[in-house]
Design brief:
Specifically methylates guanosine-37 in various tRNAs. Keywords: Cytoplasm, Methyltransferase, S-adenosyl-L-methionine, Transferase, tRNA processing. Homodimer. It is an enzyme of class 2 (transferase). The structure is a single chain. By secondary structure, the chain is α/β, with parallel strands linked by helices. The chain has two domains: about 1-165, SPOUT methyltransferase, trefoil knot domain (Alpha/beta knot, 3-Layer(aba) Sandwich); about 185-245, tRNA(m1g37)methyltransferase, domain 2 (Trp Operon Repressor, Chain A), CATH 1.10.1270.20. Helices cover about 30% and strands about 15% of the residues. The strands form three sheets. The protein has a five-stranded parallel sheet with strand order 2-1-6-5-7. It has a two-stranded antiparallel sheet with strand order 3-4. Helix 2 (about 65-75) packs parallel to helix 4 (about 125-130) and helix 3 (about 100-110) packs across helix 5. Bound molecules: adenine (ADE). Adenine (ADE) binds near residues 146, 147 and 150.
Amino acid sequence: MRLDVISIFPEYLAPLELSLIGKARQDGLLRLEVHNLRDFASDRHRTVDDTPYGGGAGMVMKPEPWALALEALLGRGGAADPEPGAKPVLIVPAPAGEVFTQRIAEELSAQDHLVFACGRYEGIDERVLDWAQEHFTVRPMSLGDYVLNGGEVAVLAMVEAIARLLPGVVGNPESLVEESHQDGLLEYPVYTKPSSWRGADVPETLLSGNHAKIARFRRDQQLLRTAARRPDLLRGLEVSGLNRADLEL
Ligand code: ADE
C-alpha cells in the first residue's frame, strides 16, 4: 500500500516512523511519504492561506498549492499494476466529515493508494474537493464530534488504524480478531497475574480452564460493557446470548 500525507507541518507526522508502523515501513509493507504543502506555493513567502470570501474569522487554504501538490502524486500509485481506472482515495480530515470507524479502516486497508490532505485554519477551499473528484475518490473524514487544530492528529490515528490491518504489520494476526469494534461490540475486560491483587480477584471463570465457559463469560462481558458505555452500538445488532432485558435496553 502507498500512503501520501500532505501537510504544512510534516514534522507532526514523525511518530509514523516509530513502533509497528515504522517497522512496517522499514520492512517494505507500506510506502509512506510526507509532503510539505508549502513546497507547492508560488510566492516568496510560500503562502498557503488567504481570507475567506463572505467574511468571517480565520483563514482558508488557497486552492492552487493543493491542486499542484495533489497533481504531483497522480500517476504514482501504490500497486505495481493498478486496476485500470482505479483512483487513489483522497482522505480529507475535517470535523465536517463522515465519522471514521473500524469498518471504514477495513475498507481503506484494501486500497492500493491513500492520500491524506491535512487542512489547517478554517479548512481548504471547497473547489479543491470538487476538482479532485475527477482524479480521486474523495472522502472527508472526521475522528469524532470535536474540533482539532488541523488534520495531522487525525491522520496519525487513521493511518495507525488502517496500517495495522495490513498483512504482516501486527505480529500475531489473532490479536486483531478479539478487539473492540471488530465484531461490533466493545472488547471484554482482561486480567493477568497475580490472580489476587490488593484484595481484587480475577473472575473465577477465567481460572477454570473451561474454554466454553470462558468464551461465554467474555461474550456476556462484551455485551454488558457495550450496553453500559455504548448502547448506540447495540441498537443495530442481533444480540444473542444475553437477554436484551438483562442489558436494560
Ligand atoms: N480536523 C479538525 N477537527 C477534526 C476532527 N474532529 N476529525 C478529523 N479532522 C479534524
